[in-house]
Design goal:
Oligomer: single chain
Helix content: 10-25%
Structural class: mainly beta
Number of strands: 11
Strand order of the largest sheet: 4-5-6-10-9-8-7
Strand content: 35-45%
Distance between the termini: 76 Å
Number of helices: 3
Largest sheet: 7 strands, antiparallel
Length: 242
């Protein structure tokens, strides 16, 4: 009998090997049409990110710069650097990945809970955001052995001359893939608040690669910024062309 058709993962060529498909899935790729034996693969993980424009978010090779809508309706400019050889996923998410190794970085967004500040957000806030059932890592079941290995706050200079806090986390967790295999991953996270939203950049790799990949992931983590965009004043009568 003919072999079942395998599901095509978005951004991955049909000629990809089984190992390449597995790595792409672990990095967050999802099926284009849900065809074949693996119809349970979701088309795209939800991130909570609402991009303002439709242009490419790539500012230059290895750098993302884009405007996103915040909870209070304002625009927040987000940026981060990544290895130039990585692939930028299409669609509404801000997601970059190395298909060969399954290293990846992607942005999550959620409203800042009422009465909370960035430095008081509990562990459960990050766990629920990272492992939501329609997201990248929670789509096929619960997450096991979730632990925060390191946690701290970095105060980074903002264009206004002040300082903006960024939560820095080092995580480990075991996730289920579509075929119910358990995969250990490590992640370096940077989170900050702007416009009533929390923006969380997750740079991750397979657990077996962490020692090798950590410098690149740390560089991504350090590069992340999310800043309230300058408000544009409406033009007055004197600004109208003659």
């Amino acid at each position: 009998p003919p072999l079942p058709t395998r599901a095509a993962l978005s951004g991955v060529p049909d000629t990809a090997t089984a190992d390449e498909l597995a790595a792409a899935y672990a990095a967050g790729a999802r099926a284009d049409g849900g065809r074949g034996a693996n119809t349970m693969i979701r088309k795209r993980a939800e991130s909570g990110v609402q991009r303002v424009g439709s242009d490419s978010p790539v500012f230059k090779p290895g750098a993302i710069l884009d405007g996103v809508r915040s909870a209070d309706g304002s625009t927040v400019d987000v940026s981060f650097a990544y290895p130039k050889e990585w692939t930028v996923a299409g669609g509404p998410n801000l997601d970059v990945r190395d298909v060969r190794t399954s290293d990846s970085a992607y942005l999550l967004a959620a409203p800042l809970p009422s009465g909370q500040a960035l430095d008081t957000l509990p562990r459960s806030f990050f766990a629920e955001l990272l492992f939501r059932s329609d997201g990248k890592y929670g789509a096929y079941g619960g997450v096991d052995d979730f632990a925060i290995a390191e946690s701290g706050v970095a105060l980074l200079s903002s264009p206004s001359g002040g300082e903006q806090p960024y939560r820095r986390l080092s995580l480990r967790f075991d996730v289920l893939t579509y075929n119910q295999n358990t995969v250990r991953r490590r992640a370096l996270v940077s989170a900050t608040a702007a416009g009533g939203s929390v923006y969380v950049l997750v740079a991750s790799c397979l657990g077996s690669r962490f020692k090798e990949a950590e410098p690149a992931l740390a560089s991504i983590q350090d590069s992340f910024r999310a800043l309230a965009a300058p408000r544009r004043l409406r033009p007055g009568p004197e600004d109208k062309p003659a």
